[in-house]
Amino acid sequence: MPTRLKCIALVLAWSVLSVLVISTYGHNVWKRPGCHKVGKFDMTVPVTLYMFQVRYCHTRKVSIPDCVEFHITTNACRGFCESWSIPSAIETLRVNPFQLITSVGQCCNIMETEDPQDIGFSAAKTYDDSI
């Protein structure tokens, strides 16, 4: 019986270790707790979603009157919200004795921005009718 328990414990330990390694070094870093920079400039590994390769970033259509419309893609932050509840602190209970539980949550937010490098656009210098 002790040998069987050792085998079960070993299999359980191996399973937990495997899950930890996979979750730590997985391709979708943003699926881990916290906030992660993703997008075109971060060059994260693409994810297959409904048979398409996609990158998680922000794409915006730029439209200038009487000009060609174009799309520009930049990086962004991505993560998921975590929330939990804890017993209220004494200070909270003094203000509101009925608030026995306090909910805490944190989400991914952009805290600082950066200007992209200069991007050049070609414009017509000369033109002529073509027949």
UniProtKB/TrEMBL annotation:
One BP annotation, GO: cell surface receptor signaling pathway
Gene3D superfamilies for this protein: Cystine-knot cytokines
Keyword check for Transferase: no
Record carries keyword Transcription: no
Transmembrane segments: none
Alphabetically ordered keywords of this record: Signal
Gene Ontology molecular function: any one: hormone receptor binding
GO cellular component: extracellular space
Range of residues in the leader sequence: 1-26
Name this polypeptide is given: DAN domain-containing protein
Source organism of this protein record: Polyplax serrata
